[in-house]
Design a protein that fits this description.
- The protein is α+β, with helices and mostly antiparallel strands.
- The protein is built from 8 helices and 7 strands.
- It has helices spanning 4-7, 17-28, 35-39, 52-56, 59-64, 110-125, 141-149, 178-182, and strands at residues 10-13, 69-74, 77-88, 93-100, 131-137, 153-164, 167-177.
- The protein has a 7-stranded mixed sheet with strand order 1-2-3-4-5-7-6, sandwiched between helices.
- A hairpin with a 2-residue loop joins strand 2 and strand 3 (77-88).
- It is globular, with a radius of gyration of 16 Å.
- The two termini are 28 Å apart.
C-alpha cells in the first residue's frame, strides 16, 4: 500500500452533524474498536452507541462539537479528532490529545500532520501560552514516537501508575515550548 503522506490532504475543521455520523460509524458503533486499546487506561469508559442519533445526543458528541476539538479530515473524510484541555487555565497549563478512529490510517503520517497543524493553531491563537503538553502511557509506543518526532520532549515518566489488563504501565508526559516549536527543523 503506498504511503498516504504523499497524496493525503489532512485538515482540521470544526465538527458538524455529518462528521459525527461518520465518526460514530468508525469509532463508536462496535463493541471493541481498535482505538480504545490505545486510549486505555486513561479513558476506560468506552460505550458503544446503537445509532448515530443516540451518539449525537451524547456528552461525547457535545465535546467533539466544542471549541476544544477539531475533526481530522483526510481527503474529505472524517477520521479522528484532536483536542485541547486546560489542566489549569489560570497558570496557562494546556494539554492536547488525538484519536484516529480509523485504524487503517495508523502509522501513515496522519497523526503527525494533524498534531503539527493543531499545535501551530493553538500557539497562533493563544499568544500568552508558552507550553503545550501531551500525556500518554507506556503501552502506546506509537504515540510516544509521534510526540518525539514532533519535537516534544519527555518531561516526566511516572512509573507503574496505569494498571491495565493485569499489567502496570507508566504515565509518560511530553511537552514543547513555544520557542522550541518555532525553531524546530
Amino acid at each position: 500500500m503506498e504511503s498516504l503522506k504523499q497524496k493525503t490532504e489532512v485538515q482540521l475543521v470544526p465538527f458538524n452533524k455529518s462528521f459525527l455520523e461518520t465518526i460514530w460509524k468508525s469509532g463508536f458503533s462496535t463493541d471493541h474498536p481498535a482505538w480504545t486499546k490505545f486510549n486505555a487506561p486513561y479513558f476506560n469508559d468506552y460505550r458503544k452507541f446503537d445509532d448515530a442519533e443516540s451518539f449525537g445526543a451524547s456528552p461525547i458528541a457535545d465535546f467533539l462539537m466544542s471549541e476544544d476539538c477539531r475533526c481530522i479530515v483526510v481527503d474529505g473524510q472524517p477520521v479522528g479528532m484532536v483536542s485541547k484541555s486546560w489542566v489549569d487555565e489560570a497558570t496557562r497549563w494546556l494539554e492536547i490529545g488525538i484519536v484516529i478512529y480509523d485504524d487503517q490510517l495508523w502509522s501513515r503520517g496522519v497523526a503527525t500532520t494533524a498534531l503539527t497543524k493543531w499545535v501551530d493553531a493553538i500557539f497562533h491563537e493563544t499568544d500568552a501560552l508558552e507550553h503545550i503538553g501531551m500525556t500518554t502511557w507506556s503501552g502506546n509506543g506509537a504515540m510516544m514516537v509521534v510526540a518525539e518526532k514532533l519535537g516534544f520532549l519527555k518531561e516526566g515518566q511516572i512509573r507503574k501508575v496505569r494498571y491495565y489488563q493485569g499489567q502496570y504501565y507508566d504515565s509518560v508526559k511530553y511537552g514543547v515550548l513555544r520557542e522550541e516549536w518555532a525553531t524546530r527543523a
